[in-house]
Design a protein that fits this description.
- The protein has 13 helices and 19 strands.
- By secondary structure, it is α/β, with parallel strands linked by helices.
- The protein folds into two domains: about 90 residues, Urease, subunit C, domain 1; about 325 residues, TIM Barrel (Alpha-Beta Barrel), CATH 3.20.20.140.
- The strands form five sheets. It has a five-stranded antiparallel β-sheet, covered by helices on one side.
- A hairpin with a 2-residue loop joins strand 2 and strand 3.
- Helix 4 packs across helix 7 and helix 7 runs parallel beside helix 8.
- The relative contact order is 0.17.
């Protein structure tokens, strides 16, 4: 809902250099007028008639930006729609998401970009469109990249499958230079990954289920880094899952490659040991890896080597998940649990679903929130090219896109109460610490007291 005046009273904001994790907490009031922040101060005399949210004990962060969201529309509206995904996103503190192009038909030309934008007009949050790299995401011929770029599309990906043809990927990188767009790669050698269902390791051997080796992800990451080095293209690696890919990214940066990378909450917090249960909701691509991989990714996140946390929100109708593990589709929900999963992982002695993971040392509430603000808001907004509206400092003149967090609130995930049309979360029944209690998106209060309005 929208009122002329909206006040936020007694919340704490994080103050410090943008993009950095060295921040301090300051208690400030915020006044919003017609969706725009007009005043930030220690104590504000709110105008008569203003709606005031008393958020003492809470933190006010720039709203989250998700670089990797499957909204399923068009083609699979039984699993999710743009509107239902936007409610889920708002509940999770997201004010902007990038919609992946693996729809039916794929988003591979200007007509499909316009269709998604028209369907997004009723969304509670901003929806950016990613275009496919290849026609129909078949990896055989380039999509209408230039035409989509002229409509403002900034990210191109065939997510769901990697571009296997090296010559095609080289051509895509060369085309991307004309529009300064980003190629986001799902790193997977389809020949190495073919027939696999989970990480290739001890658990897959015990279960007798064919695995997906690390090398399938690492080989493609290295190939594309070499191509980006050759062309000067901007490269973004999606949902990294292994220690070695992170090491390869660091090497690429030493070479001067223009590269960014993301990790998902589930690749930080869950290991392949969980898959012993053969719960289909744990089947994701890339698969859940080892505790050593998780620890390396967590360390990379803390050190700032990983640019963004992205959900890879992948809703599936029960028909695709309530089946034996090997028959199930890849993917899990992510929008409504992302913040809480990461905050719990960073601040608690152990993560409830993965006791084998060791708590990061000396991370307190402020540091955890600073890491989250950088990786879920500040940096992804720049990668998505939406930093004028999202992820910036909380200051007068900016559109109010805000997530209000209660770091002390504990809650138990209940799949049947999530806003998504699907229920495929492995965190069902897990108690998490820290919750989004209010979300202000596009200047409107869209979530209050933890529920969408």
């Amino acid at each position: 809902m929208m009122t002329k005046w909206l006040g936020i009273k007694g919340g704490k904001t994080l103050v410090g250099k943008p993009g950095g994790d060295s921040k301090t907490a300051v208690t400030q009031d915020i006044l919003i007028d017609n969706g725009v922040i007009v005043e930030v101060g220690e104590v504000i005399a709110f105008p008569p008639g203003a709606e005031v949210l008393d958020v003492q004990g809470c933190f006010v962060l720039p709203g989250f930006v998700d670089l990797h969201c499957h909204m399923r529309e068009p083609g699979d509206e039984e699993s999710e729609t743009i509107h239902s995904a936007s409610i889920a996103g708002a509940n999770g503190g997201f004010c902007c998401v990038v919609a992946m192009p693996n729809t039916t038909p794929a988003i591979d030309g200007p007509d499909m970009v316009e269709l998604i934008r028209s369907k997004s007009t009723s969304a509670l949050i901003d929806v950016e469109v990613a275009g496919a790299i290849s026609k129909a995401r078949e990896g055989k011929a380039l999509s209408e990249m230039n035409e989509m770029a002229r409509l403002g599309v900034k990210i191109f990906t065939d997510d769901g499958c990697g571009v296997q043809d090296s010559r095609l990927m080289l051509s895509a990188m060369q085309y991307s230079l004309t529009s300064n767009s980003i190629l986001a790669q799902h790193c997977e050698d389809s020949y190495l990954a073919s027939g696999g269902h989970l990480h290739d390791g001890d658990v897959s051997s015990v279960l007798g289920v064919q695995g997906i080796p690390n090398e399938g992800e690492e080989a493609m990451a290295y190939r594309d880094i070499l191509l980006a080095k050759k062309t000067g293209a901007r490269l973004h690696l999606m949902h990294m899952s292994t220690q070695r890919v992170l090491e390869i990214v660091q090497q690429a940066r030493d070479w001067g490659v223009d590269i960014t990378c993301e990790v998902t909450p589930h690749h930080l917090s869950l290991t392949h040991e969980s898959v012993k249960s053969l719960n289909p909701n744990l089947k994701v691509n890339p698969p859940l890896r080892t505790a050593n991989d998780c620890h390396s990714l967590i360390e990379g996140l803390i050190k700032g080597q990983i640019d963004a946390i992205a959900t890879d929100h992948a809703p599936h109708h029960p028909d695709k998940k309530d089946v034996p593990f090997e028959e199930a589709s890849f993917g899990m929900l992510g929008l409504e649990t992302a913040f809480s999963v990461v905050f719990t992982l960073l601040t608690q002695d152990k993560f409830p679903a993965s006791p084998e993971l060791i708590k990061p040392s000396s991370i307190d509430t402020i540091q955890a929130l600073a890491i989250i603000q950088r990786a879920m808001s500040e940096t992804p907004s720049k990668i998505a090219g939406v930093e004028k509206r999202h992820g910036g400092p909380i200051e007068p003149g900016r559109v109010a896109n805000l997530a209000i967090i209660d770091p002390s609130r504990c809650w138990t995930v209940a799949a049947n109460k999530l806003a998504s049309k699907s229920r495929n979360t492995p965190f069902d029944g897990i108690e998490l610490v820290g919750k989004v209690v209010h979300t202000i998106a596009k200047g409107k209060l869209v979530v209050s007291d933890g529920g969408s309005l």
